[in-house]
Amino acid sequence: MLNEPRREHICLSPPSERSRREFLIAAGATGAGVAAFLIVGCGDDGEPDLVMLGYPRQRIAALSELRQGEPVDFAYPAGGEQNFVVKLGEAAQIGVGPEEDIVAFSYLCTHMGCPLIGQYKDEHKIMGPCPCHFTTFDLRHNGMVVLGQATQNLPQIALLVEGDDIYATGVIGLFYGAGSNLRDARVEVRS
Amino acid sequence: MSKRDTGRSEVLAAGIAEPADQVPLPPPDAKVSTIACEYCPVACGYKVYTWPLEKEGGPAADENALGVDFPVQQLTGKWVSPNMHNVVQVDGRPHHVIIIPDGDATVVNVGGTHSVRGGAIAQKLYNPQTPTVDRLQVPLLRVRGTLQPISWDAATDIVAEVSKHVIENHGELAWGIKRYSYQFYENIYAITKLGYEKVGSPNHAPHHAPAEGDDVPGFSDTGIDAFSAAFEDDKEADVLFISGSDPYETKTVRFTTWMAAGGAKIIYVDPRKTFTAAFAEQRGGLHLQLKLGTDTALYNAIVRHIIEQGWEDKDFIEEHTSSADEIAQDGKWRRRMFGLSFEGLRAYLQSDDAFTLEGAEQITGVPADKIRQAAEMLTGGGAAERPKTVILFEKGLYWSHNYENTAAIGNLGVVLGSVGRPGRAISRMGGHQRGGQSAGKYPIDKSPHEFQGNKIEMDTDRWTVEGKTRFMWVIGLNWVGAAACSQQIIDTLRRLVLETEPQVTSEDTATAIAQLKERIDNGGMVLVHQEIYENETTEFADLVLPAATWGEENFARNNAERRLRLYERIADPPGEARPDWQIVAEVARKMGFDGFDWADSNEIFEEAGAASKGSRRDFSALVEKVQAEGRRGHDLLREFGTTGIQTPIRGDGGDLVGTPRLHEDLTFKTASGKANFVKADWAAVKARNDLLAPVGDELWVTNGRVNHLWNNLFDFTRRPYAIQRWPMNFLEINPEDASARDIESGDLLRIESDRVRNQVGEEIQGSFEAVAYVSDIVPPGVTWTYFHYPKSHANAVVSADTSLQPISLRYNFKLGRGRVVKIGTTDLRERMPFAPRNLV
Questions:
Q1: Which residue in A9, A111, A124, A141 is the catalytic one?
Q2: Is B546 exposed, middle or buried (0-12, 13-18, 19+ CB in 10 A)?
Q3: Is the dihedral of CA B57, B58, B63, B69 positive or negative?
């Protein structure tokens, strides 16, 4: 049990404002369904460690607000991630919207975690080159590496459109840095 | 489910690999081993964690063996991507394994960086739940046309008996081995002990060439070792001159960690505008976009301009280069024939207007001003302090024109004095790692081939096509795809092996042996294929022997900066697969040879130590130390971990001291100990270009590697993540050439030629299919394809006529040509990116 000291004591404080807010966002966004959390341990700060049991449904943008080639940032699924949704102007694999050209991905390069913020090339529908080791990802093809060193596609956020609302409904692929998206994906981005 | 409610199921329907969203973490007591990547010559260091299936670590630093909190921060080199995980058998029990780049590395892949190849190397390991399920597991004998399982004892009996029969009745030259040149010291030592030393057959060639011998002979004749540099020289340099390989694609971590990180200006020579070309230009360097096959003229012109301007390293040349008299006394005929003093070089370069800036522009297509700029950047243009220059080269250079191109680039290194000092070096980059520790010497005296009265290594492909090889043992390669004029090898094997009577009609060992001997006596041939997976060569094999490989046995080898490391056994080999050395040793014993009684690979490693003495691989001091201390060589090497030790190794009081770079004393491997210049004969190159160049509607069809894949894809067709990117072979074609042929990206192409020179100099038909990748990365007139994609043989349109390169008997692999014809379309535009691959 020496390996698991964090599970030895009872959390003294209730979930903080931040974790309650995440909980409420997730729960509210799912509409019909409520994202379920499981308390699996207690942080050094006395706050409970929450693990999501499934991907929540979360509104991330409005169709009418998206402009071609201009990524819009959002956090999903737990609230600490940096993702973007972008209208490519060209149909994409699992793209949504009337032109099936709206896709969403993580900003973290799956090679060594460098942020790709500001690297979108609308001419080629490419994210990158990553400033660290030059990997490029094709957003029409599930974030597949065009040239580069990442060992998985850029994690893609599954989307759903209802009316003007775009919802995130899941994550395809593991976020850089995480061992499990649902358990520990709250990666802080240092740009 | 509505079409817009997307997710996993639709991703799978799109045909891409299903990505995981979690990965098991190693518990704190997971077993830790070290290994280096299997693939490119950089050989990044990796840590391996194995633990029983029923356990799992947690996300807190004290809950996992990595000692880090999850989520992991960027650039720490401690993250575990799902492709770094697998499930394997260890001593017959299922275990998790993760193989991650060593985040604590201070050499090679400092800080745990990696390429896309090595990063996913855990997928290499045998796991019947993955596409590795078709690993070869038992020996197979072709009976009535079908491969049937037999016992190891029967298989090695057959190889031994047939071998003895061939050697006794048809001579050693009829008994051949084709084998990888790199797949670990222990295996190469065992194979060459049998082939070179015991049988003594010159019918023995590496995976990449029809003959043994030096791949860069013109360069070696300067006296400089082909792997003299350290990676840190790339970082120390002010100027990097790179020819014949895109290092970002193919030596990735050497590029990202050493070349790019040092901030050197890059002069990049390539007919294609690749990523590194664009990178070089963006950072103040030059892209010398030469016409295919014109390297010799380009480097001769740069060197001539340097000499005309007086920018050469006069002190180095004065003190450390040979005089004409010294060259005349060299023991090596090639040096006597082609070696030049500085005065001799100057006279040769002045003798031909091809080597003026304008003359070279005409030939190479590189503007005269860029050639002048290159000369100035390399030398400082007469400035008081010379820039430190590193020159690096590889196959685009030496598989175009072998002797002359390697001589020409060698002259550039010598005239700059770029050797043996920090940030001043000239070296090959390597195509694979350096595992070629042979036993004894290649029996060149028995070779039937010569050049102007001098013995040269035997052209084994030509010998086979001429019907003179009666037994060939192919170990760890796809001969069919690897040889130039692939279709001639296919035709020859079909005729000699499958269509010469008798064929084996019984699993009974004695019957099979008798039938195979009879076929041999009828002028036919027996083919043994020793491999980890079947490939096209297996289709012609009488016997298939399943090999154990990387991660399934303890092995040692060097990388391209001579860094020697232990590659530890991680998992059980599949089925009855055995390491190559063990198979060879059993056959050798059955042939009646002594000296093959090794109990394990460590015993071979220690025996090979003595054979390495005096070479760039010299690790004899390590072996002497362990023998004095009563220890094992592999165990001591294990203690060096992913850092290893750079050879040659010397003993210093009980310590072992490595050698970061060779030639630090500025002595060279010539009779005089001084470096030579070498005649890089443009007239010979021009004549060859005239024979091989495209005419009419033909295009150049040159080839190389891409970063996702390695060699003949033996692992990569079984790696969904890699093969989703390249589901079939492709041909880069310029938009101008594409539109003239009504070709768009995604179209199915046939590349065909009816004048491919075969191994005996006849012109025959050859073709392969590929998907079009329309891109201005290639200039008009030039197409480019993957060099060794299964069942799509780029070499089918490459000349196999080694009489064109009689000094070294190498193929002109990079000078294919053919017509490009659209034969249909594919659905690949839906599944695979056709985006530019050179964005910076």
A1: A111
A2: buried
A3: positive
CB-CB under 8 Å, A150 with B707: no
A142 contacts on B by Cβ (under 8 Å) = 11, 14, 16
**Chain A nearest C-alpha distance from B106 (Å):** 17
Q: Is A141 a catalytic residue?
A: no
Q: Are residues A43 and A109 in the same domain?
A: no
A191, part of any domain: no
- Residues B740-799 have pLDDT tens digits of 999 999 999 999 999 999 999 999 999 999 999 999 999 999 999 999 999 999 999 999
Contact A161 B4 (CB under 8 A): yes
pLDDT of B690-700, one tens digit each?
999 999 999 99
Q: Is the pLDDT of residue B203 over 60?
A: yes
Quick: pLDDT tens for A154-167. 999 999 999 999 99
Question: Residue A79 is part of which domain span?
Answer: 58-177
In total, how many domains does chain A have? 2
Q: Which of B9, B479, B415 is nearest to B208 (CA)?
A: B479
What whole-number distance in Å separates Cα of residue B663 and Cα of residue B674? 11
Q: The CATH number of the domain where B548 resides is what? A: 3.40.50.740
ipTM of the complex: 0.95
Residue listed under structure tokens 């989307």: A159
- Mapped onto helix, strand or coil, the DSSP state of residue B658 is coil
Cross-strand pairs, B558:
B434
Q: What is the mean pLDDT of residues B476-488?
A: 97
Same domain, B284 and B381: yes
A108 and A32 within one domain: no
Q: How many residues does chain B have?
A: 840
Point out the domain boundary residue: B648, B678, B708. Answer: B678
Residue B275 has its nearest CB partner, among A132, A142, A147, at: A147
- Structural domain containing residue B550: 140-212+458-598
- Report how far apart, in Å, the C-alpha atoms of B42 and of each of B248, B421, B433 are: 12, 20, 7
Tens digits of residue pLDDT in B308-333: 999 999 999 999 999 999 999 999 99
Please give the DSSP secondary-structure letter assigned to residue B61.
G
Q: What is the mean pLDDT of residues B825-839?
A: 96
A126: in domain = yes
Hey, what's the torsion of the CAs at B262, B265, B271, B274, to 10 degrees? Answer: 50
Q: Report chain A's C-alpha Rg in angstroms.
A: 18
DSSP code of B386? P
pLDDT number for residue A79:
85
Assess whether A47 and A101 both reside in one domain: no
| Residue at B145: amino acid letter | G
Residues A78 and A31 in one domain: no
- Pick from B515, B535, B536, B510: nearest CA to B526: B515
Q: Is A133 a catalytic residue?
A: yes
Band the pLDDT of A37: cuts 50, 70, 90: low
**Domain contains B99:** yes
How many other β-carbons are positioned within 10 Å of the β-carbon of residue B422?
Answer: 15
**Nearest alpha carbon to residue B248 among B238, B237, B259:** B259
* Alpha carbons within 13 A on the beta-carbon side of A96: 29
Checking if the pLDDT of A18 tops 80, the result is no
Model confidence at A67, in pLDDT bands (50, 70, 90)?
very high
- For residue B831, pLDDT over 70 is answered with yes
For residue A182, the chain B residues in CB contact (below 8 A) are 21-22
**CATH classification of the domain holding A120:** 2.102.10.10
**Residue A90 main-chain phi, psi, to 5 deg:** -155, 135
Q: Measured between alpha carbons, how far is B422 from B419 in angstroms, rounded to an integer?
A: 9
Tokens coding A36:
């379920």
Q: Are A86 and A118 in contact (CB under 8 A)?
A: no
Is B270 found in the same domain as B189? no
The 10s digit of each residue's pLDDT in B34-61 is 999 999 999 999 999 999 999 999 999 9
Peptide bond into A129 cis (omega under 30): yes
Torsion of CA B567, B571, B575, B577, to 10 degrees: 10
